[in-house]
Specification:
The structure is a homodimer. By secondary structure, chain A is α/β, with parallel strands linked by helices. Helices cover 33% and strands 24% of the residues of chain A. Chain A contains 12 helices and 17 strands. In chain A, strand 15 and strand 16 form a beta hairpin. The interface between A and B is large, with 95 and 95 residues. Strand 7 of chain A pairs antiparallel with strand 7 of chain B, so a sheet runs across the interface.
Chain lengths: 378, 378
């Protein structure tokens, strides 16, 4: 078992839409929704909300900064879906790298918010939007297109998919893009406080095995559906496809989360046995990691994870987006990488870790072997 | 470039829910919907439908049999989503093969109708439902989970993904499952006549390179987003996330298709340049294919494709589901394989071809090198 080629990351680009939404604005929107519900209850003669019910709408800037670590996030404009976020990031990447669309022969599009339900796939939309040629010398040009999803681990899963598919394509454009603002339940502060929108593009290129940044032993994956409902969207999937107007009004087609449960389950797992398993497979110790990047679900939670890892010997640097973009799901890890390009120096070893809905867990350890270009458009 | 291991398909299982829906029933439901729209128009004083508008609701058994080749299809029961279809197929497969859930260390779940939007992923749900162990000897057990989609090519894309991910997992359960009935626009006969529900499970196992059924040159992929809107779902994705009640009532969250355009574009493409490109890459001629299986979007269209290929030298057998299950999207190819298990004899070479939404095209050529077990539960 040895992969006969390696992968290099040539460049990473991140785009975030211009509309900044502060914590205060999130709090105001939740309160407005609470007032709407109260008015509706009065109108139909229902009892007023209990204190517990009211609490679901209550948050403020201080609370969000203290318990989540986020200061602001970006929201897409109308009709700006994942494909539009991805396109901006991809164009910036190709321009910045002086590469042409014809250099791309694969697209792996990681997202939990596909631009269209069922069809068309985002990979096909991006091929067309970028102008990647589909014919050459009168013959169809082979292009590997694929949309992938694994909740909060979608990008990590896409990274491993790209790595393995370099057997089929020489240069794969790996997308991590999500319009999470479209999934917010405005009657539930748990996700309303955290979600944000961003698109990223990463150019993955086939190299000789000796130049490989990764390796067969550098990826680790885990899924555990026993806690699947801790992060879930109640209606609109094929399990419960019928969206009644009342479902829509109460945002049951949007994400719901038991944040406390996630923290209780995930912090010990990802800083303990999952980290041990990943390192054991790679034959590395914690103090050999120069950099680490975690899916930015909650910066306070990630800092608790980091604290535990430091106690256990981690001496490197943690890269993040600083709480300025919220939880951008499939974009979070490449966004943090693009924002911290100066740290991505050849010779350094970086651990990338996704965790969340499913539960799912995916990690990779890269040893940077070439200069890497990063671009931000925000 | 040479993959250091091969893939064998150990078994394929297909499940279709018990509710059979005939062409007559489809015609009646479309007519009932037409009457509903007419009554609504009368109620609001709108003009009656034109003949053209009426035609969108008009079909009958003879027309469907003649132009699509389908006689019936199956529909899921309430709350029976893709995960439930997949679970039935997976259980039948493992029982039939005398394999245990602990033999599985990877799940690739291909579907355009995920059980839940955003989260949890179907791969995690299936891990839990099957009881695939997540811990061993006090350590997290590595399990590769991934949901993939590429419209009508989702299963073909999943097959290639499984092939490549055998570097990470020894036995991958490849799912193709779709509850397409939940995506039907009952005001548009184009898809209402064709869609059906089914779940399939395929056990993909790592073998020595000499025993490989496939090979680096046995897959071909293509995407072309220039015709993306020929098969699409207007609202509900991140491009247009807001589902107004009027959108729901007019089924704008469901699939729409320009069937004539698909036929005009796809029949010449898949029987001509796409077939040539696939064969050239594999170094094979048409007369070397013993079997072929096409995504069963429309059996009349597939027979036209077959006719053209026979003119060009194809002398093998075409396997299909005989129009008894409709277009089951991610399930169609493995369903046809499971129904025709007797044909899957060692030594035979079989072409598998998906085409459709995106546009997307994916093909693979397998040379069967081991006995294969097939199971049907319907």
């Amino acid at each position: 078992m040895h992969q006969p080629y390696g992968m290099r990351i040539v460049g990473i680009s991140a785009y975030a839409p211009p509309t900044i939404v502060t914590n205060d604005e999130i709090a105001r929107r939740l309160h407005a929704e609470r007032d709407k519900v109260e008015r509706h209850r009065q109108a139909i003669g229902a009892p007023a909300m209990t204190d517990d019910e009211q609490a679901a709408f209550d948050t403020n800037d201080r609370w969000i900064r203290r318990y989540i670590g986020f200061s602001e996030r970006r929201f897409s404009g109308p009709n700006e879906g994942s494909i539009d976020l991805a396109l901006r990031a991809s164009q910036r990447l190709l321009t910045g790298l002086h590469r042409s669309p014809r250099d791309i022969d694969g697209i792996v599009f990681a997202s939990v918010t596909p631009s269209f339900r069922h069809s068309p796939p985002d990979a096909a939309l991006l091929q067309e939007a970028l102008g990647i040629p589909t014919w050459v010398d009168g013959r169809p040009r082979e292009i590997l297109g694929l949309d992938v999803a694994l909740a909060c681990c979608s990008w990590m899963a896409g990274l491993q998919t790209a790595y393995r598919h370099l057997a089929d394509a020489e240069r794969i454009l790996l997308i991590g893009a999500d319009r999470m603002s479209a999934t917010i339940n405005w009657r539930d502060r748990s996700f309303a406080c955290v979600l944000g929108d961003a698109g990223t593009a990463t150019l993955c290129e086939r190299v000789d095995p000796a130049d490989d940044w990764f390796g067969d032993n550098r990826f680790f994956g885990w899924i555990d559906g026993s806690k699947a409902m801790v992060i879930h969207t109640p209606v609109g999937g094929s399990r419960r496809p019928d969206l009644a107007p009342s479902d829509m009004e109460s945002y049951r087609h949007c994400l719901t989360m038991d944040g406390r449960q996630v923290r209780e389950d995930m912090v010990p797992f990802v800083s303990g046995p999952a980290m041990d398993a990943m390192l054991a497979k790679a034959g590395l110790a914690l103090d050999q990691l120069d950099l680490q990047v975690w899916h930015e679900a909650n910066l306070v939670m990630n800092r608790e994870v980091e604290r535990r890892l430091r106690e256990r010997g981690f001496r490197g640097t943690t890269l993040d987006a600083g709480g300025r973009f919220g939880n951008t799901t499939s974009a979070s890890i490449p966004l943090a990488l693009a924002l911290n390009g100066v740290e991505l120096k050849p010779g350094r070893t970086v651990a990338l870790v996704g965790y969340g809905g499913g539960y799912s867990y995916r990690s990779a350890i890269a040893t940077i072997r070439h200069p890497i270009s990063t671009f931000v458009d925000m």
